[in-house]
């Protein structure tokens, strides 16, 4: 097989990036993971981590076997909000045949393929997308400062806020809030020090504890999961999902909301056909 026959799909977000090297038919030959690649959070770090992941991928092949400059590639990155963002990423990479989009596009392509439906993608960030007759529309995806409601980063940040309120006697103390205060030195000052330097992925690292707390009946954990679910339901209602629409819950956090969504939605939930990385590979194939 000649190097020109390789295609690459890259999926990048606040927690990390993944790169899949495939043949023309989409059969995976190598899978490599790397550091965070959220363009909005830090464009330079995102590009640096993608380049390092590409370097790691080349090391999986005999010298000269994987010529990146002759490969077709699609990159889906969190934080690509406009054409100039995509152009900046493309200019830093060696591919001769390359498309760059935000990670929403690749998530929908991976989850639904060509089918109509709705994707509720909740990981470090969050968005809701509908696809009908090949056309996509989106809600959310604006980052933690403006939105990302229900996301891992949002759950982590909101849990810390509740922990501080509970410390000051302005909210009930629960196992979740007590544990969070202990994790950061026992006072709000420790929480403040953490938040001043924390990135969305750092907040998202707290989310599994929130989810587990809700599962065990912790009131703050339950409140946050229900609040996140209410936001997702608003998005689904705005999308006016049809009876025939499949609903896919994707991302590291998304499936955990299944128990908190309305029954008319949960009855339509189906496993995604693939991941955002699969979507990136699919879109790369279209460049051939």
From TrEMBL:
<keyword id="KW-0418">Kinase</keyword>
<dbReference type="InterPro" id="IPR052519">
    <property type="entry name" value="Euk-type_GlcNAc_Kinase"/>
</dbReference>
<dbReference type="Pfam" id="PF01869">
    <property type="entry name" value="BcrAD_BadFG"/>
</dbReference>
<keyword id="KW-0808">Transferase</keyword>
<dbReference type="InterPro" id="IPR043129">
    <property type="entry name" value="ATPase_NBD"/>
</dbReference>
<protein>
    <submittedName>
        <fullName>Glucosamine kinase</fullName>
    </submittedName>
</protein>
<dbReference type="GO" id="GO:0016301">
    <property type="term" value="F:kinase activity"/>
</dbReference>
<feature type="domain" description="ATPase BadF/BadG/BcrA/BcrD type">
    <location>
        <begin position="8"/>
        <end position="260"/>
    </location>
</feature>
<dbReference type="InterPro" id="IPR002731">
    <property type="entry name" value="ATPase_BadF"/>
</dbReference>
């Amino acid at each position: 097989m000649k190097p020109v026959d390789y295609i690459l799909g890259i999926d990048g977000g606040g927690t990390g990036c993944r790169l899949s090297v495939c043949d023309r038919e989409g059969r995976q030959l190598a899978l490599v993971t790397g550091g965070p690649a959220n363009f909005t959070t830090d464009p330079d770090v995102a590009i640096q981590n993608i380049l390092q992941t590409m370097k790691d991928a080349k090391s999986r092949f005999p010298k000269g076997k994987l010529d990146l400059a002759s490969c077709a590639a699609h990159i889906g990155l969190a934080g690509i909000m406009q054409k100039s963002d995509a152009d900046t990423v493309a200019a830093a990479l060696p591919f001769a045949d390359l498309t760059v989009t935000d990670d929403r596009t690749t998530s929908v392509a991976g989850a639904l393929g060509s089918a109509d439906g709705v994707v509720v993608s909740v990981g470090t960030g969050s968005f809701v997308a509908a696809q009908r007759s090949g056309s996509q529309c989106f809600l959310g995806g604006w980052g933690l400062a403006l939105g990302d409601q229900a996301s891992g980063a949002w759950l982590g940040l909101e849990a810390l806020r509740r922990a501080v309120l509970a410390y000051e006697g302005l909210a009930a103390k629960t196992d979740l809030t007590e544990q969070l205060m202990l994790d950061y030195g026992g006072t709000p000052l420790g929480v403040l020090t953490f938040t001043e330097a924390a990135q969305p992925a750092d907040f998202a690292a707290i989310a599994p504890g929130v989810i587990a707390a809700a599962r065990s009946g912790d009131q703050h954990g339950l409140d946050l999961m229900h609040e996140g679910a209410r936001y997702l339901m608003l998005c689904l209602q705005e999308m006016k999902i049809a009876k025939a629409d499949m609903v896919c819950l994707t991302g590291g956090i998304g499936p955990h909301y299944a128990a908190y969504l309305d029954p008319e939605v949960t009855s339509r939930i189906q496993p995604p056909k693939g991941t955002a990385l699969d979507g990136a590979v699919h879109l790369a194939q279209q460049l051939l």
